[in-house]
Specification:
Elements (H helix, E strand, L loop, with lengths): L2 H34 L5 H5 L12 H32 L4 H15 L2 H15 L6 H25 L3 H9 L4 H29 L3 H4 L32 H11 L5 H37 L1
GO cellular component, one term: plasma membrane
Protein name: Phosphate transport system permease protein PstA
GO molecular function: phosphate transmembrane transporter activity
């Protein structure tokens, strides 16, 4: 068999696999959006869910999803970026560094249900945070931390060594070189990874079943006192997120319009995740263009 024939066969197989993958993804997204977009309305997005009557919405669940996400990213980003900077710039090759990287890899490969059980044992029971926003955010921090660490480390490793050497040659300290030269240069890839990981966290459900809970109080959006049980900012109340709501409605819901609520919630969740991905790509391009223009 000639090399040209082999090349054509290999290319055909690669293209076929790409078409199959894209087709499956398009079919899945299309099915969710076609069945769910018609259920989305302003009333659906701004009304409270009802466990018994038809016509309920997802206002509280949608808020809980974004609130848990914000708290998670506040906890994850500083710790994860610091860990990535340490591994990329300060950690010396050796058994300890290899062990740390192995721990990060193992943590990244843990099933989310295992992280949820760990969160329930530690945050819900041991620290007695109960089923709450805080317990869910801490569990998702454990779930998301290795991703941010790897994104930051890879962002630093992708930089040219001349940037670091130039800063050190000018008499800058190692930390000042990282702060003023390396971190701004790696920022676009780090930011893209952070936004993509936010989309991953936003759609997570298994880890939140055992930590944030499967119910939510009717939130009073006129009361922003964090100490109030019905305040949207209370971190110690139960917080059923949108993804958990979809699971609960499909498995144990008794409302007459189960299918409508489930389809609409799934469509909103998919649209939000798609927006996270588009935002990551858009911001990455804008920042890269600005940095290219400056250079």
């Amino acid at each position: 068999m000639s090399s040209k024939v082999t090349n054509r066969i290999a290319l055909s197989l690669i293209v076929l696999c790409a078409i199959i993958m894209a087709g499956i993804l398009a079919a899945l997204l299309g099915y969710i959006l076609v069945n769910g977009v018609t259920s989305i309305s302003w009333h659906f997005l701004t009304s409270e869910s009802d466990p018994f009557l038809a016509g309920g919405g997802i206002k509280d669940q949608l808020w809980n999803s974004f609130y848990v996400l914000i708290i998670t990213m506040i906890l994850t980003v500083p710790i994860g970026t610091s860990g990535g900077i340490y591994l990329a710039e300060y950690a010396k090759p050796g058994k300890l560094t290899s062990f740390i990287r192995s721990c990060v890899e193992v943590l990244a490969s843990l099933p989310s249900i295992v992280v949820g059980m760990f969160g329930m044992l530690i945050f819900v029971n041991y620290f007695q945070f109960r089923f709450s926003v805080l317990s869910g955010a801490l569990a998702l921090t454990v779930f998301n931390l290795p991703v941010i660490v790897r994104v930051t480390e890879d962002g630093f490793h992708s930089l040219s060594s001349h940037q670091k050497e130039g800063g050190l040659a000018l008499g800058l300290t190692h930390w000042h070189t990282i702060k003023t030269i390396l971190l701004p240069a790696a920022f676009p890839s780090i930011l893209t990874g952070i936004i993509l990981s936010a989309g991953r966290v936003f759609g997570e459900s298994a880890a939140l079943l055992f930590t944030a809970g499967m119910s939510t109080p009717n939130l009073n959006f006129t009361n922003w006192n964090p100490a109030s049980p019905t305040s949207p900012l209370n971190m110690f109340r139960s917080a059923e997120t949108l993804s958990v709501h979809i699971w609960a409605v499909n498995t144990s819901g008794i409302i007459p319009d189960i299918q409508t609520v489930a389809n609409g919630s799934a469509a909103v969740l998919v649209i939000c995740v798609l927006l996270f991905n588009l935002l990551a790509r858009g911001l990455g391009k804008v920042i890269n263009n600005k940095l290219s223009g400056k250079s």
